[in-house]
Amino acid sequence: MKGPQFVDKSNTTQLGSAIYPLDYTKYSIVPDYFNYAGIHRPVVLYTVPQTFIDDIIVHTDINDTTGVVHYTVSYIVGEYGVVDPACHVELLDHQGVMVSHGTGLFGTLYIPEANLWWPRLTHPRPGYLYTLKVSLIDNDELLDVYRLCIGLRTLQWNSTTLLLNKKPIYLAGFGKHEDANLRGKGLDNTLLVRDYNLMTWLGANSFRTSHYPYAEETLLMADQEGFMVIDESPACSLDGFDVILLEVHKAMLQEMILRDKNHPSVIMWSLANEPRTDKPEAEDYFRY
Predict the structure, then answer these.
(1) Catalytic residue among 247, 274, 281, 283
(2) Which residues form the Glycoside hydrolase family 2 catalytic domain (predicted)?
(3) Fewer CB atoms inside 10 Å of the end CB: C or N, the chain?
């Protein structure tokens, strides 16, 4: 989030043997990853019905062998949409069998003898996922439906230990990057599978999304494969701790949490990477 450092613009179009457009700008930082601008991930255009599901918030708990899912659904109504649709919620296991259901925009589902979400190296069946199916209905007409993969797990901590499903866990893994020497920066699903296979082969069970939130495909695979994720905001080498930077930083954190809040793999939020906290003004910055 520190502004890039540039050399002065030049009126010439040639630098040595290289030819540049008039008034070119040269990037002077040499990062340890592919820190380039551009579209790094798929851009998807889609339509929504006049009444559509806008957000789903899920909190999970465990009561002995019973899984508990607290859910909240919000929707948006267009000019010709249905103002007050009925909301039906179903929870399906990995075979598509309904194990619990409810009605209403918020409520609680109970799953007897639930399969919990466990990370790798802690359970013979890591990454178990259920599907939360949310439907908006008006007089038997289906207005919208959304399917969300969720994992049943709890997180607790004290001054010495992080507990997942009430058991201590140990993170073995990496500070990762979303690039590769074959293609450079960006999402590549084939390389993504290779990365997870390599991490599994090395005996890892976690990684940090250094130094920015990764593509949703990466987190979905972490959910499925049982990898724990420290989700990091794009605040790298923070400096100049002023009000403008603080507001931008907070907005980015809010967007990251809004997008990634329901992933069972995400066990921790990282505010920043290597901020200049030796500066006196950093104390008040991070307090707010």
Answers:
(1) 274
(2) 160-277
(3) C
